[in-house]
Write the C-alpha coordinates for this entry.
Amino acid sequence: MAVTRTRFAPSPTGYMHIGNLRTALYEYLIARSQGGQFILRIEDTDQERFVEGSMDVIYKTLEMTGISYDEGPGVGGEYGPYIQSERRGIYLEYAKQLVEKKAAYYCFCTKERLESLKTNDGELGASFNYDRHCLTLSQEEIDKNLAEGKPYVIRQLVPREGKTTFHDVVYGDITVDNETLDDQILIKSDGLPTYNFANVVDDHLMKITHVVRGNEYLSSTPKYNILYQAFGWDIPTYVHVPSVMKDAQHKLSKRNGDASFQDLIEKGYLAEAILNYIALLGWSPGGTREFFTLKELEENFTIDGLSKSPSIFDIEKLKWMNAEYIRKATPEDFMAMAKPYITAVVGEDSVLDLNKIAALIQQRTEILTDIPEKIDFFKELPDYDTAIYCHKKMKTDKENSKANLEKIIAFFKENEAELCSKWQSSELYAVLCELAAKCEVKNSQILWPVRTALSGKEVSPGGATELAEILGYNETVRRLEIGLEKLNKELI
Ligand code: GLU
Protein backbone atom coordinates (compact mmCIF):
# COMPACT_ATOMS: atom_id res chain seq x y z
CA MET A 1 0.00 0.00 0.00
CA ALA A 2 1.14 3.51 -0.80
CA VAL A 3 2.68 5.50 2.01
CA THR A 4 0.18 7.99 3.39
CA ARG A 5 0.96 11.50 2.24
CA THR A 6 -1.15 14.46 3.27
CA ARG A 7 -0.76 18.15 2.62
CA PHE A 8 -1.80 21.39 4.16
CA ALA A 9 -2.36 23.81 1.30
CA PRO A 10 -3.15 27.26 2.67
CA SER A 11 -3.52 30.35 0.54
CA PRO A 12 -1.51 33.27 1.94
CA THR A 13 -4.48 35.57 2.23
CA GLY A 14 -4.10 36.91 5.74
CA TYR A 15 -4.70 35.32 9.08
CA MET A 16 -4.61 31.73 10.19
CA HIS A 17 -8.26 30.94 10.67
CA ILE A 18 -9.18 28.48 13.36
CA GLY A 19 -10.77 26.21 10.74
CA ASN A 20 -7.59 26.27 8.65
CA LEU A 21 -5.43 25.40 11.58
CA ARG A 22 -7.74 22.52 12.42
CA THR A 23 -7.45 21.26 8.83
CA ALA A 24 -3.66 21.43 9.11
CA LEU A 25 -3.82 19.51 12.37
CA TYR A 26 -6.02 16.75 10.93
CA GLU A 27 -3.76 16.41 7.87
CA TYR A 28 -0.76 16.20 10.16
CA LEU A 29 -2.44 13.65 12.41
CA ILE A 30 -3.54 11.43 9.54
CA ALA A 31 0.05 11.36 8.25
CA ARG A 32 1.68 10.85 11.64
CA SER A 33 -0.81 8.26 12.89
CA GLN A 34 -0.20 6.20 9.74
CA GLY A 35 3.57 6.58 9.66
CA GLY A 36 3.26 8.79 6.58
CA GLN A 37 4.47 12.19 5.47
CA PHE A 38 2.99 15.62 5.89
CA ILE A 39 3.63 18.32 3.32
CA LEU A 40 3.15 22.07 3.35
CA ARG A 41 2.22 23.63 0.05
CA ILE A 42 1.57 27.33 -0.37
CA GLU A 43 -1.25 28.06 -2.82
CA ASP A 44 -0.54 31.56 -3.99
CA THR A 45 -1.73 31.54 -7.58
CA ASP A 46 -4.47 34.05 -6.86
CA GLN A 47 -2.19 37.07 -6.77
CA GLU A 48 -5.07 39.46 -6.13
CA ARG A 49 -5.83 37.83 -2.80
CA PHE A 50 -2.20 37.71 -1.71
CA VAL A 51 -1.54 39.49 1.57
CA GLU A 52 1.99 40.56 2.40
CA GLY A 53 3.37 38.80 5.47
CA SER A 54 0.80 36.02 5.52
CA MET A 55 3.31 33.32 4.54
CA ASP A 56 5.19 34.13 7.72
CA VAL A 57 1.96 33.81 9.68
CA ILE A 58 1.56 30.29 8.27
CA TYR A 59 5.15 29.26 9.08
CA LYS A 60 5.03 30.81 12.53
CA THR A 61 1.70 29.22 13.43
CA LEU A 62 2.87 25.76 12.43
CA GLU A 63 6.07 26.25 14.36
CA MET A 64 4.29 27.48 17.49
CA THR A 65 1.87 24.58 17.47
CA GLY A 66 4.53 21.95 16.74
CA ILE A 67 2.88 20.86 13.49
CA SER A 68 6.08 20.00 11.67
CA TYR A 69 6.18 19.19 7.98
CA ASP A 70 8.43 16.74 6.18
CA GLU A 71 8.40 18.63 2.91
CA GLY A 72 7.64 22.22 2.13
CA PRO A 73 9.11 25.69 1.67
CA GLY A 74 12.39 26.00 3.53
CA VAL A 75 12.50 22.25 4.16
CA GLY A 76 12.69 21.06 0.57
CA GLY A 77 11.72 17.59 -0.63
CA GLU A 78 11.58 15.43 -3.68
CA TYR A 79 8.45 17.02 -5.14
CA GLY A 80 9.22 20.72 -4.85
CA PRO A 81 9.01 23.58 -5.31
CA TYR A 82 6.24 23.78 -2.73
CA ILE A 83 5.11 27.31 -3.49
CA GLN A 84 2.71 27.24 -6.41
CA SER A 85 3.83 30.51 -7.96
CA GLU A 86 7.25 28.89 -8.34
CA ARG A 87 5.65 26.02 -10.26
CA ARG A 88 3.90 28.21 -12.82
CA GLY A 89 5.60 26.50 -15.81
CA ILE A 90 4.16 23.12 -14.87
CA TYR A 91 0.43 23.77 -15.08
CA LEU A 92 0.14 25.08 -18.60
CA GLU A 93 1.75 21.93 -19.98
CA TYR A 94 -0.78 19.78 -18.18
CA ALA A 95 -3.65 21.98 -19.34
CA LYS A 96 -2.45 21.59 -22.93
CA GLN A 97 -2.52 17.83 -22.48
CA LEU A 98 -6.17 18.14 -21.53
CA VAL A 99 -6.85 20.28 -24.60
CA GLU A 100 -5.36 17.51 -26.72
CA LYS A 101 -7.53 14.95 -24.94
CA LYS A 102 -10.58 17.17 -25.62
CA ALA A 103 -11.12 17.51 -21.90
CA ALA A 104 -10.38 21.25 -22.00
CA TYR A 105 -10.48 24.09 -24.51
CA TYR A 106 -9.15 27.56 -25.20
CA CYS A 107 -11.49 30.44 -24.54
CA PHE A 108 -10.80 33.91 -25.94
CA CYS A 109 -13.93 35.61 -24.70
CA THR A 110 -13.40 39.13 -23.47
CA LYS A 111 -14.38 40.30 -20.03
CA GLU A 112 -17.13 42.40 -21.59
CA ARG A 113 -18.64 39.42 -23.36
CA LEU A 114 -18.59 37.37 -20.19
CA GLU A 115 -20.10 40.24 -18.26
CA SER A 116 -22.89 40.59 -20.80
CA LEU A 117 -23.62 36.88 -20.45
CA LYS A 118 -23.92 37.25 -16.75
CA THR A 119 -26.35 40.14 -17.00
CA ASN A 120 -28.42 38.37 -19.65
CA ASP A 121 -28.61 35.51 -17.28
CA GLY A 122 -29.68 37.86 -14.55
CA GLU A 123 -27.05 36.33 -12.32
CA LEU A 124 -23.57 37.10 -11.20
CA GLY A 125 -20.98 35.08 -9.46
CA ALA A 126 -20.12 31.49 -8.96
CA SER A 127 -23.29 29.93 -10.32
CA PHE A 128 -22.65 31.45 -13.74
CA ASN A 129 -22.29 28.84 -16.48
CA TYR A 130 -20.21 29.67 -19.53
CA ASP A 131 -22.15 29.34 -22.81
CA ARG A 132 -19.34 27.43 -24.59
CA HIS A 133 -19.03 30.06 -27.27
CA CYS A 134 -15.33 29.22 -27.85
CA LEU A 135 -15.90 25.49 -27.97
CA THR A 136 -17.17 26.00 -31.49
CA LEU A 137 -13.94 27.66 -32.73
CA SER A 138 -12.14 25.79 -35.48
CA GLN A 139 -8.52 24.71 -35.00
CA GLU A 140 -7.49 27.38 -37.54
CA GLU A 141 -9.25 30.11 -35.56
CA ILE A 142 -7.64 28.92 -32.33
CA ASP A 143 -4.17 28.81 -33.90
CA LYS A 144 -4.66 32.25 -35.41
CA ASN A 145 -5.76 33.73 -32.07
CA LEU A 146 -2.81 32.16 -30.29
CA ALA A 147 -0.38 33.35 -32.94
CA GLU A 148 -1.75 36.89 -32.61
CA GLY A 149 -1.16 36.71 -28.87
CA LYS A 150 -4.85 37.16 -28.02
CA PRO A 151 -5.42 36.76 -24.29
CA TYR A 152 -7.01 33.44 -23.43
CA VAL A 153 -8.01 31.15 -20.61
CA ILE A 154 -8.24 27.37 -20.72
CA ARG A 155 -11.53 25.91 -19.57
CA GLN A 156 -12.38 22.42 -18.47
CA LEU A 157 -14.84 20.68 -20.76
CA VAL A 158 -17.23 19.14 -18.28
CA PRO A 159 -19.62 16.54 -19.69
CA ARG A 160 -23.18 17.89 -19.56
CA GLU A 161 -24.85 14.51 -19.37
CA GLY A 162 -24.73 11.84 -16.75
CA LYS A 163 -23.77 11.95 -13.12
CA THR A 164 -20.54 11.91 -11.17
CA THR A 165 -20.28 10.06 -7.89
CA PHE A 166 -17.44 10.25 -5.44
CA HIS A 167 -16.76 8.93 -2.00
CA ASP A 168 -15.82 11.05 0.95
CA VAL A 169 -14.62 9.49 4.18
CA VAL A 170 -16.70 11.82 6.33
CA TYR A 171 -19.74 12.47 4.12
CA GLY A 172 -20.07 9.10 2.36
CA ASP A 173 -21.05 8.79 -1.32
CA ILE A 174 -22.05 12.00 -3.05
CA THR A 175 -23.62 12.09 -6.51
CA VAL A 176 -24.16 15.18 -8.64
CA ASP A 177 -25.78 15.73 -12.03
CA ASN A 178 -23.07 16.80 -14.46
CA GLU A 179 -25.34 19.47 -15.90
CA THR A 180 -24.93 21.40 -12.65
CA LEU A 181 -21.17 21.65 -13.17
CA ASP A 182 -19.65 24.54 -15.12
CA ASP A 183 -16.75 24.66 -17.54
CA GLN A 184 -14.46 26.12 -14.92
CA ILE A 185 -11.29 27.98 -15.79
CA LEU A 186 -8.12 25.95 -15.35
CA ILE A 187 -5.54 28.46 -16.62
CA LYS A 188 -6.23 32.17 -16.17
CA SER A 189 -5.31 34.90 -18.65
CA ASP A 190 -2.21 35.69 -16.57
CA GLY A 191 -0.97 32.17 -17.32
CA LEU A 192 -1.38 31.03 -13.74
CA PRO A 193 -3.62 28.13 -12.82
CA THR A 194 -6.76 28.50 -10.76
CA TYR A 195 -6.92 26.72 -7.43
CA ASN A 196 -9.32 24.30 -9.08
CA PHE A 197 -6.65 23.10 -11.47
CA ALA A 198 -3.47 23.53 -9.45
CA ASN A 199 -4.75 21.45 -6.54
CA VAL A 200 -5.39 18.46 -8.80
CA VAL A 201 -2.06 18.68 -10.64
CA ASP A 202 -0.05 19.20 -7.47
CA ASP A 203 -1.85 16.60 -5.41
CA HIS A 204 -1.05 14.12 -8.16
CA LEU A 205 2.56 15.20 -8.69
CA MET A 206 3.21 15.31 -4.94
CA LYS A 207 1.72 11.82 -4.55
CA ILE A 208 -0.87 13.00 -2.03
CA THR A 209 -3.01 10.09 -0.81
CA HIS A 210 -5.46 11.94 1.47
CA VAL A 211 -6.95 15.34 0.72
CA VAL A 212 -8.37 16.98 3.83
CA ARG A 213 -10.18 20.27 3.39
CA GLY A 214 -13.26 22.26 4.30
CA ASN A 215 -16.64 21.02 3.11
CA GLU A 216 -17.02 24.15 0.96
CA TYR A 217 -14.98 22.18 -1.59
CA LEU A 218 -17.43 19.25 -1.72
CA SER A 219 -19.38 20.82 -4.57
CA SER A 220 -16.26 21.23 -6.73
CA THR A 221 -14.90 17.77 -6.08
CA PRO A 222 -16.80 16.10 -8.98
CA LYS A 223 -15.00 18.48 -11.37
CA TYR A 224 -11.67 17.49 -9.85
CA ASN A 225 -12.55 13.84 -10.31
CA ILE A 226 -13.37 14.43 -13.97
CA LEU A 227 -9.89 15.97 -14.29
CA TYR A 228 -8.21 13.01 -12.56
CA GLN A 229 -10.07 10.66 -14.87
CA ALA A 230 -9.12 12.63 -17.98
CA PHE A 231 -5.46 12.38 -17.02
CA GLY A 232 -5.84 8.74 -15.99
CA TRP A 233 -4.60 9.52 -12.48
CA ASP A 234 -5.55 7.85 -9.19
CA ILE A 235 -8.13 9.77 -7.20
CA PRO A 236 -7.02 10.55 -3.62
CA THR A 237 -9.03 9.70 -0.54
CA TYR A 238 -11.24 12.69 0.23
CA VAL A 239 -11.74 13.83 3.79
CA HIS A 240 -13.97 16.91 3.84
CA VAL A 241 -14.58 18.40 7.23
CA PRO A 242 -17.49 20.57 8.37
CA SER A 243 -16.97 24.22 9.20
CA VAL A 244 -16.12 25.43 12.65
CA MET A 245 -19.18 27.42 13.69
CA LYS A 246 -19.66 30.52 15.79
CA ASP A 247 -23.26 29.48 16.53
CA ALA A 248 -25.88 27.22 14.97
CA GLN A 249 -26.18 29.42 11.87
CA HIS A 250 -22.89 31.22 11.37
CA LYS A 251 -19.44 30.04 10.48
CA LEU A 252 -16.55 31.28 12.55
CA SER A 253 -14.97 33.98 10.44
CA LYS A 254 -12.22 36.47 10.94
CA ARG A 255 -14.03 38.81 8.57
CA ASN A 256 -16.92 38.96 11.02
CA GLY A 257 -14.63 39.73 13.89
CA ASP A 258 -14.06 36.23 15.22
CA ALA A 259 -10.66 35.43 16.61
CA SER A 260 -7.88 34.00 14.47
CA PHE A 261 -5.08 31.88 15.94
CA GLN A 262 -2.90 35.00 16.29
CA ASP A 263 -5.69 36.87 18.05
CA LEU A 264 -6.06 34.06 20.57
CA ILE A 265 -2.32 34.03 21.24
CA GLU A 266 -2.40 37.78 21.76
CA LYS A 267 -5.32 37.36 24.14
CA GLY A 268 -3.14 35.09 26.26
CA TYR A 269 -4.20 31.61 25.16
CA LEU A 270 -1.51 28.94 24.92
CA ALA A 271 -0.77 27.32 21.58
CA GLU A 272 -0.99 23.83 23.15
CA ALA A 273 -4.40 24.55 24.64
CA ILE A 274 -5.74 25.98 21.39
CA LEU A 275 -4.50 22.95 19.48
CA ASN A 276 -5.95 20.52 22.00
CA TYR A 277 -9.29 22.31 21.96
CA ILE A 278 -9.63 22.53 18.18
CA ALA A 279 -8.63 18.88 17.74
CA LEU A 280 -11.87 18.02 19.53
CA LEU A 281 -13.96 20.34 17.36
CA GLY A 282 -14.94 17.69 14.84
CA TRP A 283 -12.99 14.70 16.05
CA SER A 284 -13.80 12.42 18.93
CA PRO A 285 -11.34 10.07 20.59
CA GLY A 286 -14.25 7.75 21.35
CA GLY A 287 -14.29 8.32 25.11
CA THR A 288 -14.53 11.14 27.56
CA ARG A 289 -10.87 12.06 27.67
CA GLU A 290 -10.30 15.71 26.80
CA PHE A 291 -6.64 16.46 27.38
CA PHE A 292 -4.17 15.51 24.68
CA THR A 293 -0.73 16.77 23.88
CA LEU A 294 0.14 16.81 20.20
CA LYS A 295 2.11 13.61 20.72
CA GLU A 296 -0.88 11.96 22.37
CA LEU A 297 -3.13 13.09 19.54
CA GLU A 298 -0.73 11.42 17.10
CA GLU A 299 -1.03 8.20 19.08
CA ASN A 300 -4.80 8.31 19.40
CA PHE A 301 -6.00 9.78 16.14
CA THR A 302 -8.12 7.76 13.74
CA ILE A 303 -9.93 9.08 10.68
CA ASP A 304 -13.18 7.42 11.68
CA GLY A 305 -13.36 9.66 14.74
CA LEU A 306 -14.08 12.61 12.42
CA SER A 307 -17.64 13.80 12.45
CA LYS A 308 -19.77 15.51 9.84
CA SER A 309 -21.82 17.47 12.31
CA PRO A 310 -20.52 21.03 12.62
CA SER A 311 -19.00 22.03 15.95
CA ILE A 312 -19.43 25.31 17.69
CA PHE A 313 -16.34 27.13 18.86
CA ASP A 314 -16.95 27.86 22.52
CA ILE A 315 -14.51 30.41 23.85
CA GLU A 316 -15.53 29.67 27.45
CA LYS A 317 -14.60 26.02 27.00
CA LEU A 318 -11.28 27.02 25.50
CA LYS A 319 -10.69 29.36 28.41
CA TRP A 320 -11.36 26.57 30.86
CA MET A 321 -8.99 24.28 29.02
CA ASN A 322 -6.36 27.00 28.86
CA ALA A 323 -6.62 27.52 32.63
CA GLU A 324 -6.09 23.80 33.14
CA TYR A 325 -2.96 23.93 30.99
CA ILE A 326 -1.67 26.87 33.01
CA ARG A 327 -2.43 25.16 36.31
CA LYS A 328 -0.67 21.98 35.32
CA ALA A 329 2.44 23.71 33.97
CA THR A 330 5.68 23.36 35.96
CA PRO A 331 6.67 26.56 37.79
CA GLU A 332 9.51 26.98 35.26
CA ASP A 333 7.21 26.64 32.28
CA PHE A 334 4.67 28.99 33.82
CA MET A 335 7.40 31.52 34.54
CA ALA A 336 8.54 31.33 30.92
CA MET A 337 5.08 32.17 29.65
CA ALA A 338 4.14 34.67 32.36
CA LYS A 339 7.39 36.64 32.51
CA PRO A 340 6.67 39.07 29.67
CA TYR A 341 3.32 39.91 31.27
CA ILE A 342 4.84 40.30 34.74
CA THR A 343 7.77 42.45 33.67
CA ALA A 344 5.46 44.60 31.55
CA VAL A 345 3.87 45.63 34.87
CA VAL A 346 6.68 45.64 37.44
CA GLY A 347 9.47 46.58 35.02
CA GLU A 348 12.46 44.66 33.71
CA ASP A 349 14.68 45.85 36.56
CA SER A 350 12.24 45.23 39.40
CA VAL A 351 13.74 44.23 42.74
CA LEU A 352 10.73 42.04 43.44
CA ASP A 353 11.10 38.27 43.25
CA LEU A 354 9.31 37.45 40.01
CA ASN A 355 9.24 33.73 40.78
CA LYS A 356 7.25 34.42 43.93
CA ILE A 357 4.82 36.64 42.03
CA ALA A 358 4.45 33.92 39.40
CA ALA A 359 3.82 31.27 42.06
CA LEU A 360 1.13 33.47 43.57
CA ILE A 361 -0.82 33.83 40.35
CA GLN A 362 -0.32 30.54 38.56
CA GLN A 363 -3.39 28.80 39.99
CA ARG A 364 -5.45 31.95 39.55
CA THR A 365 -4.73 32.64 35.90
CA GLU A 366 -7.06 31.53 33.11
CA ILE A 367 -5.43 33.39 30.25
CA LEU A 368 -2.09 35.16 30.34
CA THR A 369 -3.63 38.56 29.74
CA ASP A 370 -5.32 38.21 33.16
CA ILE A 371 -1.91 38.70 34.75
CA PRO A 372 -1.30 42.48 34.60
CA GLU A 373 -4.54 43.36 36.32
CA LYS A 374 -3.84 40.81 39.07
CA ILE A 375 -0.39 42.11 39.95
CA ASP A 376 -0.43 45.82 39.12
CA PHE A 377 -0.50 46.76 42.83
CA PHE A 378 2.98 45.32 43.32
CA LYS A 379 4.34 48.10 41.16
CA GLU A 380 2.32 50.85 42.74
CA LEU A 381 -0.22 51.00 45.52
CA PRO A 382 -3.47 52.19 43.99
CA ASP A 383 -5.38 55.08 45.51
CA TYR A 384 -8.17 53.12 47.13
CA ASP A 385 -11.37 53.74 49.03
CA THR A 386 -11.17 52.75 52.70
CA ALA A 387 -14.55 51.04 52.37
CA ILE A 388 -12.55 47.96 51.30
CA TYR A 389 -11.38 47.53 54.90
CA CYS A 390 -14.94 46.61 55.86
CA HIS A 391 -15.61 42.90 55.46
CA LYS A 392 -18.49 41.19 57.16
CA LYS A 393 -17.03 37.70 57.25
CA MET A 394 -13.64 38.94 58.42
CA LYS A 395 -15.43 40.99 61.09
CA THR A 396 -13.55 44.11 60.10
CA ASP A 397 -14.68 47.69 59.83
CA LYS A 398 -12.83 50.97 59.53
CA GLU A 399 -12.54 51.47 63.29
CA ASN A 400 -11.09 48.11 64.21
CA SER A 401 -8.88 48.14 61.13
CA LYS A 402 -7.44 51.46 62.20
CA ALA A 403 -6.85 50.26 65.74
CA ASN A 404 -5.28 47.02 64.60
CA LEU A 405 -3.08 48.65 61.95
CA GLU A 406 -1.66 50.89 64.69
CA LYS A 407 -0.76 47.84 66.73
CA ILE A 408 0.65 45.98 63.76
CA ILE A 409 2.87 48.87 62.70
CA ALA A 410 4.15 49.35 66.22
CA PHE A 411 4.83 45.63 66.45
CA PHE A 412 6.71 45.57 63.13
CA LYS A 413 8.85 48.51 64.12
CA GLU A 414 9.71 47.14 67.57
CA ASN A 415 10.72 43.79 66.11
CA GLU A 416 12.28 44.89 62.85
CA ALA A 417 15.58 43.05 63.16
CA GLU A 418 14.06 39.78 64.23
CA LEU A 419 11.28 39.91 61.63
CA CYS A 420 13.68 40.73 58.85
CA SER A 421 15.80 37.69 59.70
CA LYS A 422 12.84 35.42 58.92
CA TRP A 423 10.86 37.44 56.39
CA GLN A 424 8.78 34.61 55.01
CA SER A 425 5.09 34.18 54.60
CA SER A 426 4.74 31.20 56.95
CA GLU A 427 6.79 32.87 59.69
CA LEU A 428 4.92 36.12 59.32
CA TYR A 429 1.64 34.29 59.44
CA ALA A 430 2.54 32.70 62.77
CA VAL A 431 3.74 36.01 64.16
CA LEU A 432 0.59 37.88 63.12
CA CYS A 433 -1.63 35.18 64.60
CA GLU A 434 0.29 35.47 67.85
CA LEU A 435 -0.25 39.19 67.78
CA ALA A 436 -3.99 38.66 67.21
CA ALA A 437 -4.10 36.36 70.24
CA LYS A 438 -2.23 38.89 72.33
CA CYS A 439 -4.59 41.67 71.29
CA GLU A 440 -7.58 39.37 71.82
CA VAL A 441 -8.91 39.87 68.31
CA LYS A 442 -9.64 37.39 65.55
CA ASN A 443 -6.81 36.43 63.19
CA SER A 444 -8.84 37.82 60.30
CA GLN A 445 -9.02 41.20 62.02
CA ILE A 446 -5.24 41.44 61.78
CA LEU A 447 -4.72 39.67 58.46
CA TRP A 448 -7.47 41.41 56.48
CA PRO A 449 -6.35 44.99 57.15
CA VAL A 450 -2.78 44.00 56.33
CA ARG A 451 -3.85 42.38 53.04
CA THR A 452 -5.96 45.40 52.20
CA ALA A 453 -3.27 47.94 53.04
CA LEU A 454 -0.65 46.03 51.04
CA SER A 455 -2.75 45.58 47.91
CA GLY A 456 -5.15 48.53 48.00
CA LYS A 457 -7.64 46.19 46.37
CA GLU A 458 -10.79 44.38 47.32
CA VAL A 459 -9.34 41.18 45.91
CA SER A 460 -5.75 40.22 45.43
CA PRO A 461 -3.90 37.05 44.63
CA GLY A 462 -2.45 35.74 47.87
CA GLY A 463 -3.11 36.68 51.47
CA ALA A 464 -1.54 39.26 53.78
CA THR A 465 1.69 37.47 54.53
CA GLU A 466 2.33 36.23 50.98
CA LEU A 467 2.09 39.81 49.77
CA ALA A 468 4.31 41.01 52.62
CA GLU A 469 6.98 38.44 51.80
CA ILE A 470 7.14 39.68 48.21
CA LEU A 471 7.03 43.39 49.07
CA GLY A 472 9.71 43.20 51.77
CA TYR A 473 9.84 44.83 55.20
CA ASN A 474 10.23 48.48 54.21
CA GLU A 475 7.53 48.54 51.57
CA THR A 476 5.21 46.56 53.83
CA VAL A 477 5.55 49.07 56.64
CA ARG A 478 5.23 51.98 54.21
CA ARG A 479 1.95 50.63 52.84
CA LEU A 480 0.58 49.85 56.31
CA GLU A 481 1.31 53.46 57.30
CA ILE A 482 -0.47 54.77 54.22
CA GLY A 483 -3.47 52.65 55.16
CA LEU A 484 -3.47 53.92 58.69
CA GLU A 485 -3.17 57.50 57.52
CA LYS A 486 -6.15 57.08 55.19
CA LEU A 487 -8.26 55.66 57.99
CA ASN A 488 -7.09 58.32 60.45
CA LYS A 489 -8.13 61.08 58.09
CA GLU A 490 -11.60 59.70 57.83
CA LEU A 491 -12.19 58.79 61.40
CA ILE A 492 -11.07 61.98 63.09
N1 GLU B 1 -5.81 26.84 -0.85
C1 GLU B 1 -7.04 26.28 -0.43
C2 GLU B 1 -7.56 27.08 0.76
O1 GLU B 1 -6.78 27.78 1.40
C3 GLU B 1 -6.80 24.86 0.01
C4 GLU B 1 -7.91 23.94 -0.18
C5 GLU B 1 -7.38 22.52 -0.17
O2 GLU B 1 -6.86 22.11 0.86
O3 GLU B 1 -7.43 21.85 -1.20
O4 GLU B 1 -8.73 27.05 1.03
